[in-house]
Amino acid sequence: MSDDDETLDRAAHVRRDGEKLDAHLNDGRTILVPVWRGQHLVAEGRAVLPTMEELGAFVDRGFELAWLGMLGDRGCFALDISPVERPKEEERLREVGELSDLRFVAAMMSDRDVSLLKFARGLLHWHRNTAFCGKCGGKTKPREAGHVRECTNCGAKHFPRTDPAVMMLVTHGDRCLLARQAGFPQGMVSALAGFVEPGERVEECVERETMEEVGLRVRNIRYFDSQGWPFPQSLMLGYRAEAESDEIRLDEDELEEARWYTRAELESPQGFFYPPPFSLAHHLIQSFLDDD
């Protein structure tokens, strides 16, 4: 297992170096980050990062690999174990941990582990969804240690995709607006969010999405922070904005509810909760609480 103090060096120069990649694949100390249909191996609130010596048998079965980089002096690969139909029956997997969705366990993990698992999840999701060429329909094969897929028919190259999306915490005086989508866990509310459309500036997206979802015009739009969100392949760009009025016109096709929350309500939630510290939404809301 790797040390939490070690941060990942993506070591992009290794992606085209066949000799170095082979050396890492043949090194029993090399770290693997297994992903099973979007889930990760965890144990006692930590990411399980087995070595090639421990889980190399899955590599020998021809499962998808993608180079992630270096953790200290050891190479690190994402390993897609999704072809395993019943992972609970695999003794090697049971010995090291249990499978869980990152969204449910990230709050307990170190920032290093969360970053590593997000990288592996997003990259392998892209591989599973790019098995065929978008230009001609031919089969694609991985190149550059899993960071390019090339069509075997027309030669087109495909690269990992990231979709930009905005998340905005809209305020009006001493209240902020939170909303709920139908797919949220029961009782959860969060900041508004939406995808950036072609040719659109990010600030324009903040204005458009806020108007479409809750009928509010906003001003004083300012960037807050960003977060890679591989569920499945987004980059969340966080913003703060001020509403010109507090009259909400809800788009019921997008949201179940939306309302204004005071700081007192957010400091002691009753009957609702907002996302945990793992999420950008949590930090946007915390920034509003810190304004007081």
Notes on the protein architecture:
By secondary structure, the chain is α+β, with helices and mostly antiparallel strands. 25% of the residues lie in helices and 31% in strands. The protein is built from eight helices and 16 strands. It is globular and about 60 Å long.
Which labels suit this protein?
globular, 292 residues, seven-stranded mixed beta sheet, Nucleoside Triphosphate Pyrophosphohydrolase, alpha+beta, 16 strands, single chain
Précis, in short:
This protein is α+β, with helices and mostly antiparallel strands and 292 residues long. It folds into 3 domains: 122 residues, Alpha-Beta Complex (Nucleoside Triphosphate Pyrophosphohydrolase); 25 residues, no CATH class; 128 residues, Nucleoside Triphosphate Pyrophosphohydrolase (Alpha-Beta Complex). Helices cover 25% and strands 31% of the residues.
- Give the name of the CATH superfamily of the largest domain: Nucleoside Triphosphate Pyrophosphohydrolase
| CATH architectural category of the largest domain | Alpha-Beta Complex
Strand composition percent: 25-35%
Q: How many structural domains can be distinguished in the coordinates? A: 3
Helix and strand arrangement:
Elements: E1 8-9, H1 18-25, E2 31-36, E3 39-43, E4 46-47, H2 52-60, E5 65-71, E6 74-80, H3 91-96, E7 98-101, H4 102-105, H5 111-128, E8 140-143, E9 148-151, E10 157-158, E11 163-172, E12 175-180, E13 192-195, H6 202-214, E14 218-229, E15 234-243, E16 257-262, H7 263-267, H8 280-290
Parallel strand pairs: 2-6, 11-15
Antiparallel strand pairs: 1-5, 2-3, 3-4, 3-7, 5-6, 8-9, 9-10, 11-12, 11-13, 12-16, 14-15
